[in-house]
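anyone else get weird line breaks when pasting these?? whatever heres mine. first is seq + tokens for prot A
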Amino acid sequence: MGIIKPMNREILYTITKEYPSIHHFFKEHQYPRGLVAALKRNPLVFKNGNPTMAYQPLSPGDTLLIRLPLESTHSSMQIIPTDVPLDIVYEDEDLLVVNKPAGMSIHPSLHHYEDSLANAVAGYYKKQGTSIVFRCVNRLDKNTTGLTIIAKNQLASAVLNTQGKNREIHRTYYAVVEGAITEDGTVDAPIGRLGDSVILRTIDWEHGQQAVTHYHPLQQANGFTLVECHLETGRTHQIRVHMNYIGHPMPGDYLYHPDFSRIARQPLHSARLVFHHPITGAVMDFRCPMPKDMEELLS
């Protein structure tokens, strides 16, 4: 295979308005401070083709070329590359969007050093002779399926994380729950840790963090309801805890409702993601159909 090299990323902007300085441009485009400092330490900023300093102004018609500094991939090198097929929904120089299968953790963990999404992504890029620092933007539980975003550089990661904090990444989930739900509803109930557990979550009105889930019933069959869920917040196990709280748990949920008679995992699927591209600003809208095991619950 030879030497595995980190990816190079150059971004060329055509300036459309006045900026008092390149610093102001960086701030508007959400460049993180650490990245700006690295750009200043190295000749990585070019105005109209010439190396420039960040205090220089920008005018309409100027070009600004940014060469993102090569990152140390030491931490990601500890992730063992594995030859696991990826269901790639979209890829460009800044993003990788995949449809994560059930049974795959996001990161390696105890007894699962080689079968995580990070391992699969490392293997995917190793085949191309390149590597990235693995940065997952929207982390899904091991047995939750669907759309997952991986940022391929530090700028994309920083911008997308800011979008996430500002609730600008709009997420739609499908969940199959027990019982009949006939009307739209909202669960606004804070979620916190259950006792001293590192994993389990519960509704905690005194110490929990705000959590809001909107749900809309789509289909009823076999004693189950397929609901579409929209999140205002992103708490750990949020949909699982909220649906259990209102009396409609998910079958196959080994933590909160371990009934495996019809399905071997919680039927929860990340079906749609809408956000702005971290570099171009374009609206990105991805959809992913439900997996077979969820469809079978309703057939």
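and prot B, same format (seq, then tokens)
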Amino acid sequence: MSSRHIVVYGATGHTGRLVSAELRARGLDVILAGRDGVALKALANELGGGEPGVRVHQAALDDPAALRALAEQASVLIHCAGPFTHTGGPVARAAVEGGCHYVDHALEQHHTKWLFDTMQEPARQAGVTMVTAMSFYGGMGDLLAGAVAAGLTGIERVTTAYAVTGWRLTTGAKATAELLFADTQRITYEDGAQHVGYVEPRNAVFPFPPPLGPRTMIAPIPSSEVVTVPRHVSARRVEAQLTAHTFEEEQAFTSEHVDAATRAGSDFTVAAQVITKDGGSAGQVSGHDLWRLSALASVEAAVRLAGGQGPEDPGVYGPAEAFPAAPFLRDLERLGLFTLTLPGRAES
């Protein structure tokens, strides 16, 4: 991994653009990658014209040779092109075969499980680190769960809860949501074990702290925490929930082509509640623009991996496995992405 370049696959999508712009703002060399060469060149011109720090590499998902050649040029590949149910396998395999670290924005349970089940040993043999679900949905819940649960024992239940207003789905996010909510083989985590099968959705009430207060939730949602959280938190049950009103907003599914400023108008609170035999604890983040949070979370992960600040051993990791959860969240807070509240013992 001699190259200093960081690859952004799916660079011309909304998240990919935010990731690419942030990398360039930090003075890092990037390779903008995806299937549309014309769009990639246009983005390269926006980010720096003919500067040597911005390169373009066209690689379709059904061209493994081009994907591997892409990975061979980089130290880290950030995968931004969902739905990961369809795109995750080819890009993840190419990263391992090309010998570069990998970060993705997936929230899909089955993709995350596939990475742990299938890519763990190849990643170890290749000496690369793969961090999955480093995004808003899934990633923030996993990091918060890790920070809140630190030092607790006898954990009965971990619940991650997302309160979101003003979410404007991109084309990729809309396709992902449609796939997830049509899935009848969902992964759940109950009685200390994973289960796969049909899950009857229900309404629940989550006690967000003031000023938000208790909210009606869709429970469970098919997010990746049920795969990642049990890897670092010993709990009997893990569940993710989403405010019921989020998808009731009129423009959520009809705003694929809104401008970037409109898409940045989301407000969010993400909370993690950890219930133990003796009580429990909770923490939360509250902020604006979940897309920017997703982008910068993956940039922070990639920069750490490129600088040798990732896990000691290669392999596949969730966010809070790969990096100390509370310090990582504090670094994101310093970037102005949200306000963080954690239990006193988790602040270090």
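btw re prot B: The longest helix spans residues 109-126. The CA atoms of residues 190 and 237 lie 5 Å apart.
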